[in-house]
Write a structure and sequence with these properties.
By secondary structure, the chain is mainly alpha-helical. It has seven helices and five strands.
């Protein structure tokens, strides 16, 4: 199995550099690829900030990527839960945090908008310290 960096994921998803896209495509087609959660978190930031992709496009791209033959994600259940939350309006990073905290009683944050969004989604409670 081979683990890939954020730039490989971004090239594969955006095809913004044809030569690097072709190399990334060959790598993904060969299969047995691991994508770490930290890589997905960084890739989401790059896609949103640099490529100006919206939440729906990023969620769709990550679902397609995770479903690609031969691609493994570090924690598939966490990613799928986070993508579900992101589809419902949570920021992807916040969704990953909440999905990764599922065994906890609550998530402690000073982020009041996150607390409101989480409550509306009936997910893990977000409380202030």
């Amino acid at each position: 199995m081979r683990s890939v960096d954020t730039n490989v994921v971004v090239r594969f998803l955006t095809a913004d550099d044809d030569e690097q896209f072709q190399r990334a495509k060959q790598l993904f087609e060969a299969g047995d690829i691991l994508i770490l959660t930290s890589v997905l978190l960084e890739a989401e930031w790059v896609l949103r900030s640099n490529f100006r992709l919206g939440n729906a496009a990023i969620v769709h791209a990550f679902r397609e990527l995770a479903g690609h033959d031969g691609v493994h994600v570090e924690d598939a259940a966490r990613l799928l839960h986070a993508l579900d939350l992101a589809e419902q309006g949570l920021d992807f990073a916040d969704a990953l945090h909440l999905a990764g905290s599922a065994r906890c009683t609550d998530f402690v944050s000073f982020d009041r908008p996150l607390a409101r969004r989480a409550a509306a989604l009936d997910t893990l409670p977000v409380v202030e310290p």
